[in-house]
């Protein structure tokens, strides 16, 4: 449920002693008219109809017909009310809601009051009011004191104290602590995206140490699987994809995987996030690399990583290399989409809404938007554009480049030798074949043969057509296949030699062209063909205050403008009011199932208000004071009583259905990647190789997108097995915007358009149908059954117990075993009858008991007990 500022300020008119609250223009009415009216009536240079609604006193204006915009005390006489009621205003956009109209009418009836005197004059454009500046998200982060007046017996970390303080006011408290089997399954899936093994579960359950849980958390944080799991969260936010999107072509980004690997390495190394963000926004400037001068950077592994990191700013859809219909539009759309990714991921604001006009709800102007765009423009100069292929940088060292050039020279010499050999053979054949041409025409035929096709006269063409068998110019294999084989063998030598070249890798990066700093202009209504005034780079105006010092770009020694580096350093200075809050809110959300601000990409007035603002600020301040490192923050959350509690709390379920007060652990389904990876892991087929190019995907004959080698043609869909690559973790599977992997897409893996701020978690029929019919699920179930048979041949009781431990981390009860045996007996009988009644292809030997076990495994893998984290 969203709590917008409009609802908060205007719908709740409650005061002490039951008196009706007096509404004020600034808090109650101005947000409404700003959202619906002032874009036309006040923010343009010439307000429509001459009506300006930005200030209360402007509303006393008389209109041509004699009516007045607002008549204090008389809503029925106010033209503003009449026009809204009749649906005549606003002419564009969404109509006012009944609650918003009621607020305006009540305000007018109360005398149309303001909270304080208004300025005597205003320049055209938006107003950033004191109320805007006082909004919580724009205030500097202030570390609150940890609450003391709570039940200290339930406090393990400061997180608990803040939560207990708000819970107590609601008559709530923590649920009992989850049992150890539940806890190890929860935290292992949370930190690694994989199920704990039965051995790991039993070791934790039997560990009597008082620090057993703490040691478990440390082991998981040190696992390489941790980086693969938590990189996925950030890759969602930045819109990671292995394809360019934008158009139907959706061309492949063959080097994007280096950025994915960079993020995984950064997570595992616990790279400080201030450094992590600076590298992603300005790694090229840190490395001293520009477009024409990058080579020294890629010779240094650290600087190469910094260059790779800038692919953060290359993740937006980019169809400029795919011959778009409107090239200008495509270029500017890349910048607009990348602006959305940058601002939603690092600032938690919908800045993109100000591209064409001032933001309707938040104090973000169109000028602000283009001042931020000016930060990127030297790298994204749309009038001197570089397509994706022109933003790839070779990883060759000078020695490797020289070696490759030397090999290429030799290969070309061999090819020249092969071509000379072919010509010699053809000439020999020609001398034989030309004798078939009448002697009188042989001389003319020789001239015609030696003349390039484009320069042949009609007479020459006719002569060649008359005696085609004597031509012997192009196709040696038509005359003598053995000689053609000799030529092919020589050509093969060239290819073999080229294969010895050092492998040339490339970095997909963002750089600037030295000395090229374009002027950024505001586009009227966002139209690049209507440029207006030039703007300099800068931060949002709302953040310009005595407490907050804006960033100041300084050119760097490499020749780059330094704009992105200065901006990145400002964002991570610890003084920016949004960056740390936005980041820790996402970290909290990924652990606890909902954000303190449950609209992680929108901290503005249309987003939800924080349920625990003091806790949010405490976490943000702690994050910065801990050196911007994530793992200490993990510990702060994971070791808390709040995280360890059971998902069952009847009091909380009755009083707080959405779990806004965190009085129980939020029950939630495995996400798409965790589901696929866990199924691979329990079958024993998961390939744990890390890093490198992605596993391929393709569309099979049934229309499903699966892992494998795409062999499709225009008319036929076909995917060949890709071997071990088909069984790698999902983070290493190719991400195509136009071709999401079916099993992941069905379970809400996002399609990046351009990024994903918050994953949906749906419960829909296609998910059940996939679990019943998809070949990935069916194959996994058969492999799991085979694994059980190998572990306990012919022993169905032990197999049932084993599968319970693998999937659920718990021993099967006697009732579970009894029901399982009953199902296997019944299913084996049915399958035996089925196989008896049909004719099998030669060589197919049915195995009803094993098929029954595979069916049983499929049921368990489709059960809520497997699919949900308690």
From TrEMBL:
Residues 13-112 form the Cytochrome c domain. It comes from the Bacteria. One of its GO terms (molecular function) is heme binding. Coiled coil: none annotated. It holds the Pfam family PSCyt1. PROSITE patterns: CYTC. It comes from Prosthecobacter vanneervenii. PANTHER family: CYCLOINULO-OLIGOSACCHARIDE FRUCTANOTRANSFERASE-RELATED, F-BOX DOMAIN-CONTAINING PROTEIN. Keywords: Heme, Iron, Metal-binding. InterPro entries: Cyt_c-like_dom, Cyt_c-like_dom_sf, Cyt_c_Planctomycete-type, DUF1549, DUF1553. This is Cytochrome c553.
């Amino acid at each position: 449920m969203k709590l917008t500022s409009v609802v908060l300020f205007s719908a709740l008119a409650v005061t002490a002693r039951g008196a009706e609250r007096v509404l004020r223009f600034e808090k109650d009415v101005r947000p409404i008219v700003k959202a619906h009216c002032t874009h036309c009536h006040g923010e343009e240079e010439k307000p429509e109809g001459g009506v300006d609604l930005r200030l209360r006193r402007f509303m006393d204006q008389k209109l041509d017909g004699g009516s007045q915009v607002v008549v204090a005390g008389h809503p029925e006489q106010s033209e503003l009310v009449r026009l809204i009621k009749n649906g005549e205003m606003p002419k564009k956009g969404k109509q006012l809601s009944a609650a918003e109209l009621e607020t305006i009418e009540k305000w007018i009836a109360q005398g149309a009051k303001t909270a304080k005197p208004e300025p005597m004059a205003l320049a055209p454009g938006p107003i950033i009011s004191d109320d805007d500046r006082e909004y919580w998200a724009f205030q500097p982060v202030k570390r609150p004191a940890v609450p003391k007046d709570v039940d200290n017996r339930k406090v393990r970390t400061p997180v608990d104290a803040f939560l207990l303080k708000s819970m107590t006011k609601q008559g709530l408290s923590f649920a009992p602590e989850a049992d150890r089997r539940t806890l190890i399954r929860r935290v292992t899936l949370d930190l690694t995206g994989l199920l704990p093994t039965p051995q790991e579960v039993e070791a934790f359950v039997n560990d009597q140490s008082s620090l057993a849980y703490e040691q478990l958390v440390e082991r998981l944080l040190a696992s390489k699987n941790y980086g693969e799991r938590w990189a996925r969260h950030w890759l969602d936010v930045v819109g990671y994809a292995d394809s360019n999107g934008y158009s139907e072509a959706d061309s492949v980004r063959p080097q994007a995987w280096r950025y994915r690997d960079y993020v995984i390495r950064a997570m595992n190394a616990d790279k400080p996030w201030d450094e992590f963000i600076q590298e992603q926004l300005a790694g090229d400037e840190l490395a001293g690399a520009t477009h024409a001068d990058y080579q020294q950077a890629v010779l240094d592994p650290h600087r190469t990583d910094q260059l790779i990191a800038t692919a953060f700013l290359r993740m937006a859809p980019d169809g400029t290399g795919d011959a778009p219909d409107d090239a200008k539009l495509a270029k500017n759309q890349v910048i607009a989409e990348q602006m959305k990714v940058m601002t939603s991921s690092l600032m938690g604001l919908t800045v993109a809404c100000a591209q064409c006009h001032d933001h309707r709800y938040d104090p973000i102007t169109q000028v602000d938007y283009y001042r931020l765009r000016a930060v990127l423009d030297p790298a994204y100069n749309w009038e001197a554009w570089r397509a994706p292929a022109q933003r790839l940088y070779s990883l060759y060292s000078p020695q490797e480049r020289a070696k490759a050039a030397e090999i290429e020279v030799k290969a070309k010499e061999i090819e020249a030798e092969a071509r000379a050999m072919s010509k010699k053979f053809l000439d020999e054949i020609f001398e034989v074949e030309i004798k078939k041409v009448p002697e009188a025409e042989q001389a003319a035929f020789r001239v015609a043969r030696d003349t390039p096709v484009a320069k042949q006269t009609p007479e020459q063409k006719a002569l060649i057509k008359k005696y085609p068998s004597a031509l012997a110019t192009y196709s040696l294999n038509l005359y003598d296949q053995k000689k053609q084989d000799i030529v092919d063998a020589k050509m093969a030598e060239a290819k073999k030699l080229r294969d010895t070249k050092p492998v040339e890798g490339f970095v997909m990066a963002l750089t600037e062209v030295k000395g090229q700093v374009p002027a950024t202009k505001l586009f009227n209504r966002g139209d690049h063909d209507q440029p207006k005034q030039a703007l300099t780079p800068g931060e949002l105006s709302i953040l310009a205050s005595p407490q907050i010092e804006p960033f100041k770009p300084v050119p760097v020694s490499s020749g780059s403008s330094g704009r992105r580096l200065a901006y990145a350093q400002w964002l991570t200075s610890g003084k920016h009011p949004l960056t740390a809050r936005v980041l820790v809110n996402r970290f909290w959300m990924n652990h606890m199932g909902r954000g303190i601000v449950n609209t992680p990409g929108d901290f503005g007035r249309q987003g939800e208000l924080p349920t625990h603002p003091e806790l949010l600020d405490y976490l943000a301040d702690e994050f910065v004071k801990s050196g911007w490192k994530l793992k200490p923050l993990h510990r702060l959350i994971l070791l808390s009583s709040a995280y360890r509690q059971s998902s069952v709390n009847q009091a909380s379920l009755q009083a707080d259905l959405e779990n806004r007060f965190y009085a129980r652990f939020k029950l939630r389904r495995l996400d798409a990647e965790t589901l696929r990876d866990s199924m691979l892991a329990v079958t024993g087929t998961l390939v744990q190789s890390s890093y490198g190019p992605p596993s391929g995907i393709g569309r099979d004959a049934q229309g499903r997108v699966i892992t494998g080698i795409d062999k499709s043609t225009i008319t036929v869909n076909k995917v060949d097995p890709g071997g071990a690559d088909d069984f790698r973790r999902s983070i290493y599977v190719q991400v195509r915007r136009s071709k999401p992997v079916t099993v992941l897409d069905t379970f809400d893996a996002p399609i990046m358009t351009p990024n994903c701020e918050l994953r949906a978690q749906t419960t829909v029929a296609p998910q059940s149908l996939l679990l019943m019919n998809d070949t990935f699920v069916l194959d996994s179930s058969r492999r799991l059954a085979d694994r059980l048979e190998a572990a306990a041949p012919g022993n169905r009781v032990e197999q049932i117990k084993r599968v319970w431990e693998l999937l659920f981390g718990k021993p099967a009860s006697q009732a579970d075993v009894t029901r399982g045996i009953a199902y296997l007996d019944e299913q084996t009988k049915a399958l035996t009858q089925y196989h008896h009644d049909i004719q099998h292809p030669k060589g197919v030997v049915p195995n009803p008991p094993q098929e029954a076990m595979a069916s049983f495994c499929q049921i368990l893998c489709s059960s809520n007990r497997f699919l949900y984290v308690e």
